[in-house]
Amino acid sequence: MARKKIALIGAGNIGGTMAQLCALKKLGDVVLYDVIDGLPQGKALDILHSAPIENFDAQILGTTKYEDIAGADVCIVTAGIARKPGMSRDDLVGTNAKIMRQVAEGIKSYAPNSFVIVVTNPLDAMVTLAKQVTGFPKNRVVGQSGILDSSRYRTFVAQELNVSVASVSAVVLGGHGDDMVPVRSSCQVSGIPVERLIPSPRLEEIEKRVRNAGGEIVALLKTGSAYYSPASASIRMAESYLLDRKEILPCAAYLEGEYGVHGYYFCVPVLIGAGGVEKVVEIELSPQEKNAMEQSFAHVKELVQVMNKILAGS
Ligand code: APR
């Protein structure tokens, strides 16, 4: 059986890290695409030189030609610009929408049967555009947001209680902005509701830190945004698809009535398997969480409108 083919569109910080993860996890052959000649080729060669040490046989190809992504099983898009200190994810919308339009055309032409994972910010708008331009069905276009946000929630709760992250389960839903919704009612530590272990005012501080975690990293790095954890989150989604793991993961999915949302992308738990997004899973939310989801959704709607206006004028 031939190896699977994973196309990474954007060979920057996240793209390069994902290429290495694909190789280490033996997920398949990798094509690393970018518009900057030399960047994808250099990173691909560097990773390839680690093959004898890490014991993988995958091909890692760096390219500036769309033809090379032909027949890809999965396309993961990070093409675009990243945040600098003082910027919100939404500040990227104008520049990244134009890039996303080109990228989605490339995917549509050369990898028409692929499963597309969008990572570029502002995520909820970019994944919407990717679906519009490719015309792919909703099960084959999905956005990475909640796995990372949930992982940050789990990390902070585990640190607070000095327990393994493996013992903490949590989800963060809604838009991938500062009004994302950490779902406290479903956060548990080895089956124990987190509210019994951490006092409410401290939980509020932790949840605030979760919402601002991306910004905290931007402020520290000063020249870009987080990349190790977004890369891990995106590869987890690709893995569930390629290996038909049927993991239930919080992702930005196209909703048609679920969670009261019609015709928009919004982060909710979904089952990812060989059929792509096979199912949207509805979980019970407290009245306060429902309210926070509504507020977050209003922001997503506004963001998509802003993007559509910019695109209509360009
Ligand atoms: N086609 C392909 N690649 C492009 C294009 C394009 N039209 N335009 C820009 N790129 C490339 C850049 O050349 C750069 O190498 O996208 C890459 C982006 O890499 P980084 O700047 O290192 O950004 P990264 O940290 O990888 O984040 C990428 O993901 O999480 C989001 O907010 C983040 O929007 C950002 C994206």
Model description:
This protein is α/β, with parallel strands linked by helices. The chain folds into 2 domains: 139 residues, NAD(P)-binding Rossmann-like Domain (Rossmann fold, 3-Layer(aba) Sandwich), CATH 3.40.50.720; 163 residues, L-2-Hydroxyisocaproate Dehydrogenase, Chain A, domain 2 (Alpha-Beta Complex). Helix content is 43%, strand content 20%. It is built from 10 helices and 14 strands. The chain has a 6-stranded parallel sheet with strand order 3-2-1-4-5-6, with helices on both faces. A 3-stranded antiparallel sheet has the order 7-10-11, covered by helices on one side. It has a 3-stranded antiparallel sheet with strand order 12-13-14. A hairpin with a 2-residue loop joins strand 10 and strand 11. Helix 4 packs parallel to helix 5, helix 4 packs across helix 10 and helix 6 runs antiparallel to helix 7. Adenosine-5-diphosphoribose (APR) binds next to helix 1 and helix 4.
Please write out the topology.
Blueprint: E1 5-9, H1 13-24, E2 29-33, H2 39-48, H3 51-54, E3 60-63, E4 74-77, H4 93-110, E5 115-118, H5 123-134, E6 141-143, H6 146-161, E7 168-169, E8 172-173, E9 181-182, E10 188-189, E11 192-193, H7 200-211, H8 213-221, H9 228-242, E12 247-256, E13 262-273, E14 276-280, H10 287-312
Parallel strand pairs: 1-2, 1-4, 2-3, 4-5, 5-6
Antiparallel strand pairs: 7-10, 8-9, 10-11, 12-13, 13-14
Bound molecules: adenosine-5-diphosphoribose (APR).
The site of adenosine-5-diphosphoribose has 29 residues, from helix 1 and helix 4.
